[in-house]
Specification:
Elements (H helix, E strand, L loop, with lengths): L1 H28 L8 E3 L4 E5 L2 E5 L3 E4 L6 E5 L10 E4 L6 E5 L2 E5 L9 H4 L4 E4 L9 E5 L6 E4 L3 E3 L1 H11 L1 H26 L5 H20 L1 H6 L3 H14 L1 H9 L8 H24 L3 H29 L3 H26 L5 H41 L10 H13 L7 E8 L2 H8 L1 H24 L5 E4 L4 E7 L5 H18 L8 E7 L10 H14 L10
Antiparallel strand pairs: 1-12, 2-3, 2-5, 4-11, 5-10, 6-9, 6-12, 7-8, 7-10, 13-15, 13-16, 14-15
Helix pairs in contact: 1-4, 1-12, 4-5, 4-12, 5-7, 5-8, 5-12, 8-9, 9-10, 10-11, 11-12, 14-15, 15-16
C-alpha cells in the first residue's frame, strides 16, 4: 500500500504542477486588452511583373526557381501603424523587409549558421517607421528553392502582442520543456532521498540528467531563444552538444538495468557518443566544418543506439520475462518511433516543427520509464525499511531500548578493525546489584522496573556526556549488566564515574524507597601508559576483572 501511495503522490504532484503552469501560461497569453490586438495583413499585396501589377492575397503558393528574387508590395499601411511590429515568416527564403528604400529587417547568419529547417521556425520582426503612410512596404525573398513555395500573411501589432503570439506558437515546446524539468527535479529528489536511506538507485540520476539535457536542447533550439536570445551562436553550440550527449544517460540507464556480458554493448555506445561529440567539436574548431553538416552522423548514431538498447532489452526479456522489462522495451520502442518520425520530417520533408514530434516522444518515453521506476523504487524502499527494522530489532534490547550485546560486540569489532578511528578508549562495565534478591522479594515486575531505571540512568549519563562534547556509546550486555565505551576520553574515569553516581543518586532521591538501585562498575583503558593498545579480549577481561573486584558504589573510586 505504501509504495502505491508514493507512486500516486509523485505522479499527482507532477501532473498538478504541469497543469498549473499551463493554466498560468494560457491565462497570461489571453488577456484581452487593446494593446494585445493582432491583425493579419493578408490583403493589399501585389506583385510587379514587367511593370504589370498583379493583386495577391496571402497566404499564397507561388512557383519558385533557384536564384530568383521575388518581391511582394503593400501600400495599405498608414501613419497610425507607426511603431507597430510587422512579423513575417520566410526567414528560410532570405527575407528582407523594407519601407520604401529603408531596410527594416534582413536575416543574417551569426557565427553559427542554420539550415532551412532551423530557419523555418523563426519570425522576421520589423518595426514600422513613423512615415509609413507615404511609403510602400515590401517583402523580398532572395533564397528561393526549385519548387513551389508558400508565403504566409505577416502579422501586425504591438510589441507586446507580437511577443505573446510568438510565445503562443511555442506553447507546446514550453509545456514539454516544463514537464521535463519537473520530472527531472522529481527524479533527482527521489535519487537523493533513496541515497540518504542507503539505496543507490542510479537510474533516477540517469533519468534526471537525460531530462535536463533534453530541456536544455528544447530551450536553445527553440524559436523563442533564436529570436530573443542574447548570444544565439553560443546557444546553438550548446543545443547541438545537448542533442549529441543526451542519449548517454539513457544508455547508462540500460547499463544499470542489465548485467553480465551485455553491458559491453552500452559501453560501446557510450564510447561512440562521446567520440562523436569530441570529433565534431574538433572538426568545427580546426577545419570549420559546420555542425549542421555533421548532423546526419549524430542522427545515425542515435538511431543505432536506440536499436542496440532495444536489442539488449529484448534478449534480457527472453531470458527472464518481467513487467519491468516489458515497460522499458515499450519506452525505447516509443522513443525510436517518434525519433524516426522526427527524422523524416526534418531530413526528407524539411518540416520545421519536427522538434515537437521528438519532444512528445521523449516525454512519452520518460513517463513509461518513470512509472516503472517508481514502482520498483517503492518496492526497494519497502524492503529496505523492513530490513532496517529487522536489523534494528536484532541489535536493540526490547525492554530498555538500548543497543544489545550483539550491537556491543559489533562495535568492539569496529574498534579492532580501526573503523571507529580512535587512538584510545575507556570501556566501563556497569552492574545493577541485587536484581535476583529483588525478583525473589518483590517479584519480576519490580526487577524489570529496576533494570529500566538503571538503563535510564545510563542513557541520561550518555546524553550528559554528549552535551559536554564527550562521545559515549552505551549497551545492555546482560540481564543486569551494561557497558559504556568512550572513544578519545577527555575527562578521567573518576570524574565521569562521579557524574554517573550523581545521576543514580538523583534518581534514588526521587523514587520510592523500594525502587532504589545500587550499581557497581569496572573500567579499563584500551591503551596502557606507554600508548600500546591491548587486544580486545584483554581489554574486556581487565574491565570485567575490575568489576568483580569492585564492591563499592559507582563513583567511590577514581582512576
Amino acid at each position: 500500500m505504501k509504495h502505491k501511495t508514493l507512486r500516486c503522490t509523485a505522479e499527482t504532484v507532477a501532473l498538478l504542477l504541469t497543469v498549473a503552469m499551463l493554466a498560468f501560461l494560457v491565462a497570461g497569453l489571453h488577456q484581452h486588452d487593446p494593446d494585445r490586438v493582432l491583425s493579419t495583413l493578408n490583403t493589399g499585396w501585389y506583385q510587379l511583373t514587367d511593370g504589370v501589377r498583379r493583386e495577391i492575397t496571402l497566404p499564397v503558393t507561388l512557383p519558385a526557381e533557384p536564384e530568383q528574387t521575388l518581391t511582394l508590395y503593400n501600400d495599405t499601411l498608414t501613419d497610425s501603424d507607426a511603431g507597430k511590429l510587422l512579423s513575417a515568416r520566410g526567414v528560410e527564403y532570405g527575407i528582407e523587409i523594407r519601407a520604401g528604400e529603408t531596410l527594416l529587417y534582413r536575416y543574417e547568419d551569426n557565427a553559427f549558421p542554420k539550415n532551412t529547417q532551423m530557419k523555418g521556425r523563426l519570425w522576421a520582426d520589423a518595426e514600422i517607421p513613423d512615415n509609413i503612410g507615404g511609403q510602400t512596404l515590401s517583402l523580398t525573398f532572395t533564397q528561393l528553392s526549385d519548387r513551389t513555395d508558400r508565403f504566409d500573411a505577416p502579422l501586425l501589432g504591438s510589441v507586446r502582442s507580437i511577443t505573446g503570439h510568438h510565445i503562443q506558437t511555442s506553447l507546446f515546446s514550453l509545456v514539454m520543456m516544463l514537464a521535463m524539468v519537473i520530472l527531472a527535479v522529481l527524479a533527482l529528489l527521489i535519487f537523493c532521498y533513496m541515497s540518504s536511506c542507503g539505496i543507490r538507485e542510479r537510474r533516477f540520476l540517469d533519468v534526471a540528467v537525460f531530462l535536463l539535457l533534453c530541456s536544455l536542447w528544447c530551450l536553445t533550439d527553440s524559436a523563442l531563444y533564436q529570436i530573443y536570445g542574447r548570444d544565439t551562436a553560443a546557444g546553438s553550440v550548446v543545443s547541438f552538444y545537448a542533442f549529441m550527449l543526451m542519449s548517454i544517460p539513457m544508455v547508462h540507464f540500460v547499463r544499470n538495468t542489465i548485467s553480465g556480458r551485455r553491458r559491453l554493448v552500452p559501453d560501446i555506445c557510450i564510447a561512440l557518443f562521446c567520440a562523436n561529440a569530441l570529433a565534431q567539436g574538433a572538426a568545427y574548431r580546426l577545419f570549420g566544418i559546420r555542425f549542421i553538416d555533421m548532423l546526419p552522423l549524430t542522427h545515425l548514431l542515435l538511431a543505432a543506439g536506440v536499436a542496440a538498447m532495444l536489442t539488449v532489452l529484448l534478449r534480457s526479456y527472453r531470458e527472464q520475462p518481467s513487467q519491468q522489462l516489458r515497460l522499458r522495451i515499450a519506452a525505447f520502442a516509443a522513443l525510436g518511433v517518434f525519433g524516426v518520425a522526427a527524422l523524416v520530417l526534418y531530413g526528407l520533408l524539411h518540416i520545421y516543427w519536427y522538434d515537437a514530434i521528438f519532444q512528445f516522444g521523449v516525454l512519452l518515453f520518460i513517463i513509461l520509464l518513470f512509472r516503472e521506476l517508481l514502482g520498483q523504487a517503492t518496492e526497494d524502499m519497502r524492503f529496505h525499511m523492513e530490513h532496517r527494522i529487522s536489523h534494528q530489532m536484532q541489535r536493540e534490547d526490547r525492554m530498555t531500548g538500548l543497543p544489545n550485546r550483539r550491537a556491543f560486540e559489533e562495535y568492539m569489532e569496529r574498534i579492532r578493525t580501526g573503523e571507529v578511528g580512535c587512538r584510545d578508549a575507556v570501556l566501563t562495565y556497569i552492574r545493577l546489584e541485587g536484581l535476583n534478591e529483588r525478583n525473589d522479594r518483590l517479584g519480576l515486575q519490580a526487577g524489570d522496573e529496576a533494570v529500566i531505571a538503571a538503563a535510564r540512568c545510563v542513557a541520561d549519563f550518555c546524553r550528559a556526556c554528549e552535551d559536554g562534547g564527550e562521545s559515549v556509546s552505551c549497551f545492555r550486555t546482560g540481564g543486569n549488566e551494561f557497558a559504556l565505551i568512550r572513544p578519545e576520553p577527555r575527562a578521567n574515569s573518576g570524574q565521569l564515574h562521579r557524574q554517573f553516581s550523581a545521576i543514580v543518586a538523583r534518581y534514588n532521591r526521587t523514587c520510592a524507597p523500594r525502587a532504589r538501585i545500587t550499581m557497581t562498575y569496572g573500567f579499563s583503558r584500551l591503551c596502557d601508559e606507554d600508548g600500546k593498545s591491548h587486544s580486545i579480549s584483554a581489554w574486556k577481561a581487565e574491565a570485567d576483572a575490575y568489576l568483580k573486584r569492585n564492591a563499592t558504589r559507582l563513583g567511590g573510586d577514581t582512576e
